[in-house]
Predict the structure.
Amino acid sequence: MTHELLTIGRISVDIYPNDIGVGLEDVTSFGKYLGGSPSNVAVAAARHGRRTGVITRTGDDPFGSFLHRELRKFGVDDSFVTPAAGQTPATFCAIKPATDEFPLYFYGRFPTAPDLQIKAEELDLDAIRDAGIFWSTVTGLCQEPSRSAHIAAHEARPRTGLKAGQFTILDLDYRPMFWASEEEARAEVAKILPHVTVAIGNDKECAVAVGEGTPDEQADRLLAAGVEIAVVKLGAEGVMAKTRTERVVSAPVPVETVNGLGAGDSFGGAFCHGLLSGWPLSEVLDYANASGAIVASRLSCADAMPTPDEVTSLLAERGRPIPGASAALAEGAVR
């Protein structure tokens, strides 16, 4: 099987409260869900009909079995998900939409976690080379042996060796609790950027990767490092994507936020779908933006990932262009 999207890195069990708007100390019941950013991105793209897989590790325990079951339920290939030493991590979150606070508490990740035990010699480099999109995150670079595995994967897939329609994406997902310093993270990101065609991050994540500056300055630095598409999330102002010849901004898609944590992963999976579809960059960005907004309006992450019909319905409702519609009309006119 050639994957249209293959991700590598973090997986966990997300433990989310059923009691909304209170601190964890006052929560009386929880639900459990598949979590971990690269795994969520694979789920999100699968919801858009893409063949996806994830390279990761779980503990050899009931939570690990649960994550395998969930990946298969969502149509994500779990053949590169194997057990490693340690217990499957769990991530707790308090959900306080009124204050826009969603603090995360990581359990089973310190000093390490199974998904940070991916070894370079265990990788299927042919699958990584052949994937339409290979997606990794900065968090996967935070410690060995995961760091060396990520570097080996990217070296096996040089930017100059990509075919038309192939992309290598780095999610600039910086989480300070996993790093000794921003400087250490920046040094590791610098080793990966030469292999990357797309980089995605918010202002803080871009600052860690390439230094402080305006969104345009950060995007320009990413492009100077060899990236072909730099995506900078602008918070309340939406999201910008920049290439060497184009700059597009997608305005925010307002929704009533329930849980903002999975929005970025939904954005990522939809962004991959748009790239693989060959849409104009502006349409890719709008589609991904709407996908992220839908998940922000729901409680969970993986289970909340939208279908294409849900995304296009929201775009139409907000008066945004429907990706592919203009091309379909033009084709109809020719006929």
Confidence is low (pLDDT under 50) at residues 328-334. The CA atoms of residues 40 and 302 lie 5 Å apart.
